[in-house]
Amino acid sequence: MTTTASTTPAGTPEPSAEGLGAGEPLLAVEDLTVRFPTYDGLVQAVTGLSYRLEQGSTLGIVGESGSGKSVSSMAVLGLHDAKRTQMSGSIRLAGKEIVGMSESRLMRIRGKEAAMIFQDPLSALHPFFTVGKQLAEAYLVHNHVSRKVARKRAVEMLDRVGIPQAKNRVDDYPHQFSGGMRQRVMIAMALINDPRLLIADEPTTALDVTVQAQILDLLQELQRDFNSAIVIITHDLGVVAEMADDVLVMYAGRCVEYGPCKEILTHPEMPYTWGLLSSVPDISAAADARLIPIRGNPPSLLNPPTGCPFHPRCDHTDKVPGDLCATQLPELSAASTGGVHIKRCHLANPEEIYFTEILPEIAPDLAEELSGTTGAEEGGTSR
Ligand SMILES: Nc1ncnc2c1ncn2[C@@H]1O[C@H](COP(=O)(O)OP(=O)(O)OP(=O)(O)O)[C@@H](O)[C@H]1O
Ligand code: SF4
Ligand SMILES: [Mg+2]
Q: Is 310 in the pocket of ligand 2 (CB under 6 A)?
């Protein structure tokens, strides 16, 4: 599985048999901006977001509440009301431009090319219809088959996602399932038309750890079987470490760090990513590791901070000359690890700060172990 983290446009390659140009990824988001006009002002939910994802690969999108994870992902399915949303940039999915696409064309794409497991399964499933009926309807939208065949497919999918006695449960209503089982029903619904892209928006929030692990295993298994690409949205870098090839860190509607998962987790270069890592128990595995919450509150997207949006909460502004952090938005630039890892920060020596100041705080054993090796790069990958 490989993905290419890049902010460069996909270009205009020759079309291939799968509807993708040569070298064109399954999903290419370029300079996506999403704004919501409200009575209080313009909500700047997503700004200048770019990423790409290949078939069969997984991208983890992380960031705290309100950072634009769901809004940017819903845009991929064209789910924002065009009359109430200002959107610009490009989203190419399976070779087709989604931004500006008509609702009738979007209906043909949703569920088939891309499907979404929504953050809240209870609100995504209709309470008055049985899960079997809802699954069958989702299948009938894209397949000219009888209701009987669609129902059979619904039972097959419930069985596939591990609902015991699927044949008997198919006529149950959503409220008759437990939270974990409802999440499985959502996955069955999302996968019923074998989509090439699956967007899983916090698919394990509010589930206990055992069920959470089962759902993540299930997603990985289904990805192997269907070769789907997955975007997994989560607050939890532990989930990302488990699942993702690439990671996109969002803050205040923007990408602040992006690249291969291994590099982001072992050589993070943006202080907000450090904050996320410091607050994840799985990453700082040493017994004497400290969990350090990020201070302050998420910014208002009605009136985002000037300069670097993280500056009111950042502990490293004194290492940047003058008032650059407060006045100038850092561009996305190559991280010192090279390759396709990029970060948005004015710090000149983030790698040194991470290994000398941050890592010793959150994972002292690991920091000590690394200081005994020939260099941070060598040991950094051993986490
Ligand atoms: N339809 C809308 N109208 C106005 N503002 C909106 C709308 N949808 C989302 N927002 C705002 O856009 C911002 C980003 O929301 P989004 O749902 O993408 O956050 P998120 O990163 O998914 O957060 P969470 O982790 O809590 O799900 C938030 O400030 C949210 O209040
Ligand atoms: S640009 Fe400045 S405020 Fe923003 S993360 Fe870097 S050091 Fe912190
Ligand atoms: Mg969300």
A: yes
Cα(282)–Cα(179) distance, integer angstroms: 24
Question: How many contiguous H segments (helices) and E segments (strands) does the chain have?
Answer: 16, 12
- pLDDT per position as a tens digit, 193-214: 989 999 999 887 767 777 778 8
- What is the crossing angle of helices 131-142 and 147-160, to 10°? 110
For 363, half-sphere exposure in the C-beta direction (CA atoms, 13 angstrom radius) is 24
76 CA → ligand 1 middle, Å: 15
Coil/strand/helix, residue 36: strand
Helix (H) or strand (E) holding 265: helix 261-266
Q: How far is the CA of 199 from the centre of ligand 3 (A)?
A: 12
CA 44 to each of CA 35, 47, 118, 252, 269: distance values in angstroms, whole numbers, following the listed order: 5, 7, 22, 8, 25
**What does the pLDDT look like over 59-74, one tens digit per residue?**
999 999 999 999 999 9
pTM: 0.89
Confidence band, pLDDT 50/70/90 cuts, at residue 6: very low
3-state DSSP call for residue 21? strand
Tell me, using a 6 A CB cutoff, whether residue 38 lines ligand 1. Answer: yes
Q: Is the CB of 299 under 6 A from ligand 1?
A: no
